[in-house]
Automatic annotation (TrEMBL):
Residues 24-166 form the YncI copper-binding domain. Residues 1-23 form the signal peptide. Transmembrane segments: none annotated. Keywords: Signal. It comes from the Bacteria. This is DUF1775 domain-containing protein.
Amino acid sequence: MQKSLSVALCALTLGLSGGAVQAHVTLEQPEAAAGSTYRAVLRVGHGCDGQATQTLRVTLPEGFYNAKPMPKAGWSLKVEQGPYATPFDNHGKEMTSGAREISWSGGELADDWYDEFIIRGTVGPEVAPGTVLYFAAVQECAKGTADWTDVSGRSDVENPAPGVTVTMASVGMDHGHNHGAPAHDAQAAGHGHDHAAGHDAAMGAAPGAALRLGDLTLSGPFSRATPPGAPVAGGFVTIANGGAEDDRLISVRADEVTDRAEIHEMAMQDAVMTMRQMPEGLPIPAGATVELKPGGYHMMFFDLKQPLAEGQIVKVTLEFEKAGEIELPLVVGPRNAGAGGDKAMKGGEHAGH
């Protein structure tokens, strides 16, 4: 349901935004940290002047390494190899070449349909923050083409190439792909398994910084200050699964502040907002982002040993079914901390406990 809603909202945005109407091929995620795994989801919202798209060709940018496309049922997949301008250190093995152009062909994506084409790779750690990596794309139809190949970055062009802006590497992010340096990357794009699950956690992170654990990226962790005598508190974080396999958050521990931490969900039942424990854990589907937030999924801390004070850092250990464990520093904000419009989590929400 969440993915379907996301697709519907994307389609609505394409219909209402003037810039988006021109950019028929766009990237779902507009930013990626240097040295991180990036899942380039190319969104195709229209064909060629009413015609169905039968082929999509994508030229990969310099600085995007070890790229691997996701096959699509009913489409033929072709990967053209070529040299890298800068060699890439993949777990100690130097790569001087890799995928340079990827194409899906033989399909039939009608003009009034929407679909996504996915390529997974690694943004080079040497790519400077602020750099835009362009994925020049061309749609081929029965008669004619639609190209999205302009890499000038200008907003007034009719055929802008989809681009991702590179940001600074997150604190705690591995940098195993520095050229000539030992490889410490916990998970490289397309690698079949994680050689160092929990590596980022061991390295530590600044409070509030994004952390990586295998295919998972955890960002924006926080909690809320509690009044004196309050027995419970909540914990929140956004978890993105950039891998090809589903995972699951199966347990939470916060030994500094409680001996009982659980994964919970708030939902409407018979027109009444209720809260329930999720004893089987919280699914983190492949390619999806799951948000633990006030009024929805969240971590629940019972029988607090002491009140949570604004500015405090609470260390929480999250255990995932496949990715393993990671220690997450929750920044304690004010009592109404959270996204705009969220209801403040106060004792009334958990009166049943």
